[in-house]
Design goal:
Layout lengths: L3 H12 L2 E5 L4 H12 L3 E6 L10 E5 L5 H15 L4 E4 L14 H27 L4 E6 L13 H21 L4 E8 L2 E2 L8 H5 L8 E2 H13 L7 E4 L8
Parallel strand pairs: 1-2, 1-4, 2-3, 4-5, 5-6, 6-9, 7-8
Helix pairs in contact: 2-7, 3-4, 4-5
Length: 246
Amino acid sequence: MRNRTQDILWKDKIMAKVVIVTGASQGIGAEIVKAFRKLDYRIVATSRTIAPSEDPNILTVVGDIGDPATAQHIISEAVAQFGRVDTLVNNAGIYIGKPFTDNSVEDYNAVMNVNMAGFFHITKLAIAEMEKHSSGHVVNITGSIDNGISGGHMALAALTKGGLNAVTRVLAIEYAKKGIRVNAVAPGVTKTPMHPEEHHEMLGTFHPLGRMGEAGEVASAVVFLDSAEFVTGEILHVDGGQSAGR
């Protein structure tokens, strides 16, 4: 039998909020993990390659997010380790920048596997877990793809990230009465290891504010939405004005 101290520790464990962050090993995902940890969330951080954490409140799970078995493993580990799932941040995504007619079937399959299948498998499991306590929040990291950019080669990004923007609104309505919110953050071009430093000045010109975004700015938007309890179905652009026009 557990003693009173163990009961108190267990109660604290299951009362603390728990967030799952996909694509968490670097860039925007790593900043999202840091932002939630500052708020004392328990975190399940997952990526294809991610090192174990020395923080007992951060559980890392290695796996291909496009594989349904990985999604099941992530949810099972979150519940086993921390007792619940409060927030899911679908950050994992890849970008292949080629002229549309140069994209191969392999390119298409790779983007669909991460950006779409990766969203589908884990989100349906996370929402099912959230339904058990009639509350929860899903945040999709999409992209500022409202309009094309000349030379940007954004067709596959628009196909997948635009789809995520649409399903954000649909799921927000579908699950509103069950106490589950669904929102998205749509970044502009953001400083991550994906973009070599020598390209930063040029990429900054895509935004009316004249610079690239910082990963921490995207993370701040995610944390804001998680605390904004009367906001659902929102696509929050963090893009230096890119979606407003150029």
